[in-house]
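Following up on my earlier message about S-adenosylmethionine. Here are the inputs again, as you asked, copied directly from the submission form:
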Amino acid sequence: MSAPPPLADRLGRPLRNLRLSVTDRCNLRCSYCMPEVDYTWLPRADLLSFEELARLVDAFAGLGVHKVRLTGGEPLLRRDLPVLVELLARRPAIRDLALTTNGLLLPELAPALRAAGLGRLTISLDTLDRERFRHLTRRDDLERALRGIRAAREAGFRGTKLNMVVMRGFNDDELFPMLDFAREHELELRFIEYMDVGGATRWSPADVVSRAEILARLEARYGSVSGIPARRHSAPAEDFTLADGTRFGVIASTTAPFCAACDRSRLTADGQWFTCLYAPRGTDLRAPLRAGAGPEELRARILGVWGERRDRGAEERLGLAGRERLASQEVLQADPHLEMHTRGG
Ligand code: SAM
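Thanks, got it. Here's what our run produced:
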């Protein structure tokens, strides 16, 4: 059976790409995502089982979603994650199954994830300096993260991406060492602009190193930087190459957002569906699921929301005068669904 034609929203954007946050918990406390001491966690009873997640994925797949990325929180903290991977990998409609992780648990889990059918990995690493890593994440775990990167390769993962959030005065002097590291380990580095998302309660425009500045610094060091236009359609990263062929990406969600081509949405571990990273509210899919809704009813609910979607959250943020953090700690504690680690990065 061929895939149905993608359903378009009000701005003509298809529904193709689903980020599945499998847990709101994380084993790091990065200052740009989880800087606080205490968090309001999702109630355990609300977390969807693997079977429930798979039923929702089927509903999305029936409407044209063919890419699924497992994320969180830290997705490898979800118990028995390879079982979910296997469930999803078995679905022919899901042609691209990927996972974003901080890598700490890859030494234990990479072989099982590979065997279960996980296609691709993105690993987040912002610094190669142990003291900085400890300061940024409040955990002394750089060595573990590096072991995770090696374990991914040993388990057979190829084309792994490395995400680096660039922050002025913290790690913006590591653009070149990170490129060297990525080249050495056959990873494709993606420089990510620091975003004013929920969770980033310490965000300030002064800390953002823009795409333009990143490219200018790379050009000053390596000579010409060429853009590779092909993948720009909907992928968040813009791809570039250096004169020596080194490939890298830039995710410029803060200064050059890609809302016009955004085909992604996010499902939280408790079944709330968000059609924009900045959306104040989501759609509850857990309630109908647990009330016994069948595939048709779930598809109808999703279709109704996506058909009316007009979100352009990052572009609207760009237009704000006096732009500052999205939400305060108090607001986030009252509504944890606003958090990036709940919504899924
Ligand atoms: N724990 C996993 C990880 O570390 O990759 C997955 C979840 S994490 C929220 C997903 C991605 O979001 C990471 O690459 C992280 O660096 C990024 N991220 C979180 N907060 C961010 C922010 N304020 N600005 C830019 N990227 C951010």
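One observation from looking it over: The longest helix spans residues 142-154. Hope that helps, and feel free to reply on this thread.
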